[in-house]
Amino acid sequence: DRQTLVAVLQFLRRSNLRESEEILRREARLLGDDLGGNVATVATSSPGVAAVAAVPPGKGEVCGVGPTSAGTPGSGEPVCCSQPRGLSVMLGHKGAVVVEDQPDVSAVLSAYNQQGDPTLYEEYYSGLKHFIECSLDCHRAELSQLFYPLFVHMYLELVYNQHESEAKSFFERFHGDQECYYQDDLRVLSSLTKKEHMKGNETMLDFRTSKFVLRISRDSYQLLKRHLQEKQNNQIWNIVQEHLYIDIFDGMPRSKQQIDAMVGSLAGEAKREANKAKVFFGLLKEPEFDVPLDDEDEEGENEEGKPKKKKPKKDNVGSKSKKQDPNAPPQNRIPLPELKDSDKLDKVMNMKEAARRVRLGPECLPSICFYTFLNAYQGLTAVDITDDSSMIVGGFADSTVRVWSVTPKKLRSVKTAADLSLIDKESDDVLERIMDEKTASELKILYGHSGPVYGTSFSPDRNYLLSCSEDGTVRLWSLQTFTCLVGYKGHNYPVWDTQFSPYGYYFVSGGHDRVARLWATDHYQPLRIFAGHLADVTCTRFHPNSNYIATGSADRTIRLWDVLNGNCVRIFTGHKGPIHSLAFSPNGRFLATGATDGRVLLWDIGHGLMVGELKGHTDTIYALRFSRDGEILASGSMDNTVRLWDAVKAFEDLETDDFTTATGHINLPENSQDLLLGTYMTKSTPVVHLHFTRRNLLLAAGAYSSQ
Description:
Its main location: nucleus. It is found in: Nucleus. Belongs to the WD repeat TAF5 family. This is Transcription initiation factor TFIID subunit 5. The protein is α+β, with helices and mostly antiparallel strands. It has 3 domains: about 1-30; about 120-270, Serine Threonine Protein Phosphatase 5, Tetratricopeptide repeat (Alpha Horseshoe); about 370-655 and about 670-700, Methylamine Dehydrogenase, Chain H. The protein is about 25% helix and about 25% strand. The protein has 20 helices and 34 strands. The strands form 10 sheets. Strands 9-10-11-12 form a 4-stranded antiparallel sheet, with no helix packed on it. A 4-stranded antiparallel sheet has the order 13-14-15-16, with no helix packed on it.
């Protein structure tokens, strides 16, 4: 409004802030002679500094002049001013400063500028608490979700505005009321007692920048809104408006059990539309080639000795029909590497093995073979086993990578260049001849990392090995020469996990910098960067069709990313601790996840819903794997046990009707005990890796811990 503008211009002139006056005049298209003398009283009521904030074009922003903001008793007159985005004009007595508007820490925090009387915060909170506790049972469970985000924001607001004693008493009075799964976050929060502490704290900033999502029925929301407006409890209403995202649905309010199953992540639940995108979860059609099955018997005896080459596929190819899966992505949706002859040979081997596969089920459980690492130098930090179960690799805290052969066939390197030049390249057994017998040994040690190795992954063709480390790099090793070929540098912090695509060529890594990266072995820059998690990306997994990647994080969510365009197509919330293991079912429809909370959760990828919860483990679950045909899910944990679950029963007759999908009312069957087929204890070995061989023998691995 013109009068206000004129008043501000006069104030600037009186304060000798000519530069600011000029800028404002140009913005407002006011010429010098427009300054009247009749409105000189505005904006002088405070000795403080007026700040004109950057706002999007067309929106007026009310900026307080004086110690408290507009609308509170004793404040100066509000100065209203609209201004193009990108410039903040700071007005001070020392002269005008024009700064570029960057979303920096102080800008993020400034939303906590004081709005209410600090002494009343406890009263506001306890008033709302009383109202929610006295509301009807059906609404109470839903509205109780408000306690935690409101508690955090009110506490941070008190700290930011330097009311330290009020903040302390507010925290002490109400922190005990929060749900147990927020204890770790509250511990971080309790250490933030001064405004300065907030500046560099990442958890804090995430809480500020990402809106906490609550899913509430329309009835409960109306009830809350009415209460806050009647009480004129603006403080809480402002926080609800500004910092919370309320996903309102029509229908019955959810029960306490339904809510508890889904909440617990750093930013609340996922918005419903986050899980609406179409996901092609079907499998790609197998390439067709002839399988010579006639000489099966002679090959049987020769299996161990013959040089087995390349590329297995996670599924039993032999028994699959050749029809295209309706839910599969188009064959050429992402470019996949061509099959080499050695890959075809390996597929043939795979089919033959599949023909002898044991059909597992509740009546026929797999045998389990456990590889225990003894004297694991400073601790074993990662394990992987090749698809044909011929090699096992360990990543260690002393920054070495160690590869063992678990068949009688020893590991050999390729001969030196001088020796290779003498070989007849046309001979049939040239692949045998290039290997140097003098180098044969059961164990090869790979040196190169300068920190603990947290993730390892064999390529499907067994020619390469990936390892990732605390030193921020991912390394690609050749299993022909046992040397490092490439060091991929993209993460600036520890890399917690890496995994090859089931088709080779692509791989994914995730780390402390909160992003996952997709790489191709022949590019030294990442092809995709998947950003969105609010804390470390702790584990990564490719979907069997290689078009999607799942990531688990310390923010207690699992995200599914589309490799084609880098979009996040699913967000799953429900775990109460950092996620440490992921496994896709062989048919690509389901995902199993394990975390520090000791629960295995099962997800329907197509519908974006949680469909099961397996309770039994008492410690972090570090390993999950489905059997080759998907009948059994094996889980391995820090509680020194391997547990087997009936996956067929867990996924049969799922209730995924439209209503459930629309509102997220999930009804988890309380049948963990019926699904548990067996628990197998080790003496004192936490289980860090599980692998089903092509014939469905279960291999497990871990390092013996003496305590």
